[in-house]
Amino acid sequence: MAAQTLQLRPLGNTGLKLSSVGFGASPLGKVFGDVSEQDAVAAVREAFRFGVNFFDTSPFYGGTLSEKVLGKALKALGVPRDQYIVSTKCGRYKEGFDFSAERVTKSIDESLERLQLDFVDIFQCHDIEFGSLDQIVNETLPALLKLKQAGKIRFIGITGLPLGIFTYVLDRVPPGTVDVILSYCHYSINDSTLEDLLPYLKSKGVGVISASPLAMGLLTEAGGPEWHPASPELKAACRAAVDHCKQRGKNISKLALQYSLANPDISSILVGMKSIKEVEENIAAAQELAAAGTDEETLSEVTNILKPVKNQTWPSGIQQS
Predict the structure, then answer these.
(1) Residue pLDDT tens, the chain, 321 long
(2) Cys-Cys crosslink for 319: which of 15, 139, 227, 315, Cβ 3.0 to 4.6 Å?
């Protein structure tokens, strides 16, 4: 049994309780640089040991590699299936986008095989702004409801960058069709626009997961990847905030993660992890927040530095490396 150190938070009306820190498995697909299978398996084991029970992947990450590696790592835990919650996605692939009923129905079988699972807890339409939202409403989601009835998936989600996609879809489907939304890059120190949507999502009974608390690498000492789509102005402001924290002997990534974790209405903050060291840093940030609260002084200094670019976003999409 995992050593329970992380807060568990209910996810909408699903009955699931997610660890406040979730394991983002895109780095296992080498999306953010090389990672050995051994390190990946060790990272998953360490995260689970500290109470992380939520693991998120997609067939798009590393062209199916992330799912395969996560599947091996979860199997290696040797624990009962009800001890962890797995979400994967459909509709976005190395080859491109396909949200057709036929493709997503085939997609779950492929994912289950790679993950070595009989079902996934959450199955999400991946980056729906790149498809037709009306197709998502009229074709994709009804296909996922059939997969739910077949027992291959337990809950249904939608993901993407522009927040308007969530209201568009949720306003057009029967209540209870969509169980969860996954938003990214809209609940961090530089962009907290997801907050405005939380009351609406709550009223719809939809659970909320937020990813990329570090703004896809901008709020890290290493900086974002070459392909990061943010404007030069936003990148420069984040770099200034990083440097400010460094001079003060503070870690901006820890501060950014704690900022995201501090809102209990977000069920889980997904953080990409690929090593024991990264897992331990993320767990320590959560434990420190629980014990001592936020470093308000540094947070307000960083907030001031980022004020000129606050809530500035970018065109959608994560590039395929």
Answers:
(1) 445 579 999 999 999 999 999 999 988 877 666 788 899 999 999 999 999 999 999 999 888 999 999 999 999 999 999 999 999 999 999 999 999 999 999 999 999 999 999 999 999 999 999 999 999 999 999 999 999 999 999 999 999 999 999 999 999 999 999 999 999 999 999 999 999 999 999 999 999 999 999 999 999 999 988 889 999 999 999 999 999 999 999 999 999 999 999 999 999 999 999 899 999 999 999 999 999 999 999 999 999 999 999 999 987 754 443
(2) 227
pTM to 2 decimals? 0.94
Q: How buried is residue 5: exposed, middle or buried, by Cβ count under 10 Å (0-12/13-18/19+)?
A: middle
Residue 9 vs residues 61, 85, 189, 319: alpha-carbon distances, Å = 26, 13, 22, 31
Phi-psi region of 263 (alpha: psi -120 to 50; beta: other; left: phi over 0): beta
Residues designated as active site: 61
Domain ranges of the chain: 8-217+255-296
8-217+255-296 CATH pick, 3.40.50.2000, 3.10.50.40, 3.90.550.10, 3.20.20.100: 3.20.20.100
Q: Is 185 exposed, middle or buried (0-12, 13-18, 19+ CB in 10 A)?
A: buried
